[in-house]
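USER:
Working in pairs, take the chain set out below, taking as long as you need, and write a paragraph about the fold.
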Amino acid sequence: MPNLIAVILVLIVGSCLGSFFNVCIYRIPIKKSIVFPPSYCPACSKPIPAWLNIPILGYLLSAGKCKNCKQKIHWHYILVESVAALIFLVLFLRLGGQFSFLFFKYAVFFSFGLIIFFIDLFHQIVPDGLSLPLIPLGLIAALLPANEIGVLSSGVGMAAGFSFFYAIAYSYWKITGKMGLGGGDIKLIAGIGAFVGVAGLLFTILVSSVIAFLFILILRHDVKKELSFAPFLISGVFLYIIFGVRLITWYANLF
């Protein structure tokens, strides 16, 4: 059983990081510093008191409203903090209940991934400053002995992911004159390939495509409108880490 203190620590650190992710989600698309000034209300620009900056609890204590102007604080702030804490906890428990190399590796990936998830969801962009660093980080991690995939799988996953989806996007653009897949998505796919290797990339692409298809089908999304694909890719990576190896092994044993 994992140490209770470690579990609490993971939840606290995860929610605190979620609070920082919220700053990035708001400021990166509008090209503002993520360091200065300190947290402030987007509506009235007044600084947020320290006691209301406590992750999750601060939102609840303020009843989801700015203390100064009483403007509603968007629901995604508490959602990001809660989801970040839960994702870090699930990773911690799934990867052995200890602060292992793999835990920190995927904690880094989802630190970038969660910010990308919500920026793409709200703005339909995947900033290069978030997607590109995943490529060298994944390749460097693959060089270390504690990594679960080799550098070959990481390199091939990165190159294949980028090349294949660049070819698809270019072909679609030449045929229709429209962008079917953004450059940010392609770079993100390359970063995913570097982190999870060939098998993980194939799993992620398949699962994220199925989830996206079900989303369009169930919610009757207009296929003529843009659909943010990065959230589905990030979700696919998470499902791969939690269930992927078991599902791939089960499928391989069928033959």
